[in-house]
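_Full entry_
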Amino acid sequence: QVQLVESGGGLVQAGGSLRLSCAASGRTFSRYAMGWFRQAPGKEREFVASISRTGGNVYYADSVKGRFTISRSNAKSTVYLQMNSLKPEDTAVYYCASATNMGAYEARSWGASDYWGQGTQVTVSS
């Protein structure tokens, strides 16, 4: 079993930056492709970014492409989401999720995930 714990959320002004972290406990972090998802109030959960088990492949939602960067450290069992040029519409609860033995492409789907974190709130003020 894997436990995922997100951190790094907070309140930031538009144009600012935040770096989210998702620390995984358990074994063999390198078996999991990882994804970031978000859910804003009154909206459905949406895909943000995903990364393959080795970090060699990444995918981004069009809405964050060029502003967000996903990365991972298998040595630290942690996946990161660097968020720059934040906009008020980025306000949401951000979740990380793991997808066992899958690639970054499959990890774009919440349904492919087998473990999820509790989420961290990101609020961007205008």
User: Anything to note?
Assistant: The chain has no helices and eleven strands. Residues 23 and 76 are 8 Å apart (CA to CA). The first strand starts at residue 3 and ends at 7. The radius of gyration is 13 Å.
